[in-house]
Design brief:
The chain is an alpha/beta fold. The protein contains 16 helices and 21 strands.
Length: about 475
């Protein structure tokens, strides 16, 4: 039995190892105890993804919430995370609990919690939840009602979240021009919850949608994990090249993240996608408002902020920082390096479905292909190049040694890939600011035993060397 800690986005663990029914019930009891302190009245939304036994874990969570006196609205099938989050707003719920490990490997499952706005709970709230999780040997502290009994009493009820979400989506975007455009779109669902959603939304016109990886398969074949980055997206991109698609819309395992491929079947990295979405809102739709971004994402947003005279707010990594900042600043868009983007007028939560629809709308409104859209952004802010390396670190001694090396670094005369380091920011990880306006970030993942090394630079040739130097700095 392990201690339960909430990372970048909830608690995640290996199924049958630390992610057990007992630990799940403990975590749910802590969440229920926290909700009681808020004094809010209303139902709790519970949903789940397509991972192994996720539906059974969701049922176990419902039993604990019902045992604590909460009314529970449970999705009857695996449901995209943004749809679950919007249901909080649509059903005037006080919170949501989502059984999903998002982009993690297939052997993992997860536990995401959302607040009354449908957004991630801020770090202070997560600490309160953790503090209320019963000890591993205190089973008497977990209050439960058998699911059949709770369903018969009406304390747990199944509900269909799709109609409310689709009606709201129609308020945010007119998909009729996309349907009529005659595009050929490949949608890579990564075996996840988003399967069928874009096909249904875009049906009935000249545009053709070709879905791949749409079946339910918790082993996630043809990819290491349902994370919308190479090499996981390579099989879907290959299909796009075979059929001559205009673009590739990619959804991660729980459909809250967006990936994108161009008309040549080439991946458009998530920093460039974020810049394209911000440019689309600012230039094409004429929207104004703050841009919220994590420190691990693109400086192209800072440049767009200056050009369009809108504030840019930098946060730590994770939507537990982005969501509260979006609410505080009434931001028009918020996002992070992982491909998660949220929008004003919706919920402060990543939405891969809406993000892909906005990219398609960008294509239709401008009459341009994805490579041309990216060039529009580069014409404004210059070309930027990004890459990332993930290093698995399961040895705590090696992890501690890497932290010591990074904590004791002297950046005087330090260069990375031939570029001089001007400053070091340690808000969340170790971010080295370079003389070309680029950066290198070395950061320990909050969801997995990984050390992530990222860079963005205007010097394309220097990218491999910068990443290599980053690994050297950490001693891995």
């Amino acid at each position: 039995m392990s201690d339960i800690k909430f990372g970048t986005d909830g608690w995640r663990g290996r199924i049958g190892d630390d992610y057990t029914y007992t630990n799940l019930r403990r975590a749910t009891q802590g969440f229920a105890a926290y909700l009681k302190t808020t004094g809010r009245q209303g139902p709790v939304i519970v949903g789940y993804d397509r991972r192994f036994s996720a539906n059974h874990f969701a049922a176990a969570a419902c039993e604990v919430l019902a045992g604590n006196g909460f009314q529970v609205l449970l999705t009857p099938v695996p449901t995209p995370t943004p749809v679950i989050s919007y249901s909080v707003k649509a059903k005037q719920a006080i919170a949501a609990l989502n059984i999903t490990a998002s982009h993690n490997p297939p052997e993992d499952c997860g536990f995401k919690v959302r607040d009354e706005n449908g957004g991630a709970i801020a770090p202070a709230g997560l600490q309160q939840i953790e503090a209320r999780i019963p000890a591993a040997d205190d089973e008497a502290a977990i209050q439960r009602v058998p699911l059949a009994e709770a369903l018969a009493a009406g304390q747990v009820a199944y509900f269909d979240p799709k109609p409310d979400y689709l009606a709201h989506l129609a308020e945010l975007i007119d998909v009729a021009p996309i349907k009529a455009a005659g595009l050929k779109i490949v949608v890579d669902n990564m075996w996840g919850n988003g399967a069928g959603w874009l096909s249904e939304i875009l049906a009935g016109g000249r545009t053709e949608v070709i879905e791949v990886h749409a079946e339910h398969n918790p082993l996630f074949p043809e990819m290491n994990r349902p994370e919308p980055i190479p090499p996981n997206v390579d099989a879907g991109l290959a299909v796009a090249r075979q059929v001559g698609a205009d673009c590739v819309c990619i959804l991660d395992g729980d459909a809250d993240r967006c990936g994108f491929g161009d008309e040549n079947g080439q991946f458009v990295d998530q920093l460039r996608v974020y810049a394209m979405l911000a440019y689309y809102l600012l230039e094409v739709r004429g929207v104004r408002g703050a841009i919220v971004k994590t420190l691990s994402t693109t400086t192209m947003l800072d440049k767009l902020g200056q050009l369009y005279d809108v504030p840019v707010v930098n946060t730590g990594v994770g939507f537990k920082y982005v969501a509260p900042a979006m609410i505080e600043h009434d931001a028009m868009i918020g996002g992070e390096e992982s491909g998660g983007y949220a929008f004003r007028g919706h919920v402060p939560e990543r939405d891969g479905i809406l993000s892909n629809l906005y990219l398609l709308d960008f294509m239709v409104r401008t009459g341009k292909q994805p490579t041309e859209l990216l060039q529009l952004v580069f014409d404004k802010v210059g070309a930027h190049y990004y890459d990332r390396i993930d290093v698995r670190l399961t040895d705590n001694a090696l992890k501690a040694a890497a932290r010591r090396r990074l904590d004791n670094l002297d950046i005087t005369n330090l260069t990375l890939g031939g570029h001089r380091v001007l400053d070091l920011v340690t808000t969340d990880g170790y971010k080295f600011l370079m003389d070309d306006g680029g950066w290198l970030l070395v950061r320990f993942s909050g969801t997995e035993p990984l050390l992530r090394v990222y860079t963005e630079t205007t010097d394309q040739q220097a990218v491999p060397a910068i990443l290599a130097d980053g690994r050297t700095l950490a001693g891995v």
